[in-house]
């Protein structure tokens, strides 16, 4: 599954176009490698997403084409969340 589609379906990022913009700016990495929106993700991959001054790392637990709001949280598990200093 494409990275931008997974981010939208899992509701980590609300819109697919926003997911594409963020990944094209190099703010998302898959298993430590900077990823593009078209990169493929699979179960077991770790995504590190930079939201402003925060980096959220999640592990992909499942892939689905569509997910209801209640199911979206089951697609990934939070590994860590860390603040980034601006210095």
TrEMBL record:
Gene Ontology molecular function, alphabetical: ribosomal large subunit binding; rRNA binding; tRNA binding
Residue ranges of domain RNA-binding S4 in the record: 1-64
A Pfam family this chain is assigned to: S4
Gene3D superfamilies recorded: RNA-binding S4 domain
PROSITE patterns named among the record's database cross-references: S4
Any single GO BP term: rescue of stalled ribosome
Keyword RNA-binding listed: yes
UniProt keyword annotations, A-Z: Protein biosynthesis, RNA-binding, rRNA-binding, tRNA-binding
Keyword rRNA-binding in record: yes
InterPro entries, sorted: RqcP, S4_RNA-bd, S4_RNA-bd_sf
Quaternary data: Associates with stalled 50S ribosomal subunits. Binds to RqcH, 23S rRNA and the P-site tRNA. Does not require RqcH for association with 50S subunits.
Function statement: Key component of the ribosome quality control system (RQC), a ribosome-associated complex that mediates the extraction of incompletely synthesized nascent chains from stalled ribosomes and their subsequent degradation. RqcH recruits Ala-charged tRNA, and with RqcP directs the elongation of stalled nascent chains on 50S ribosomal subunits, leading to non-templated C-terminal alanine extensions (Ala tail). The Ala tail promotes nascent chain degradation. RqcP is associated with the translocation-like movement of the peptidyl-tRNA from the A-site into the P-site.
Family membership: Belongs to the RqcP family.
Protein name: RQC P-site tRNA stabilizing factor
Species in which this protein is naturally found: Priestia veravalensis
Origin organism lineage: Bacteria, Bacillati, Bacillota, Bacilli, Bacillales
């Amino acid at each position: 599954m494409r990275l931008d589609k997974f981010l939208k379906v899992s509701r980590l990022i609300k819109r697919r176009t926003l997911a594409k913009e963020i990944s094209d700016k190099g703010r998302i990495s898959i298993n430590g490698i900077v990823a593009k929106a078209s990169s493929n993700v699979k179960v077991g991959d770790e995504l590190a997403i930079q939201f402003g001054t925060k980096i959220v790392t999640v592990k992909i637990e499942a892939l689905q084409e569509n997910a209801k709001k209640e199911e979206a949280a089951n697609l990934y598990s939070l590994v860590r969340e860390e603040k980034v200093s601006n210095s």
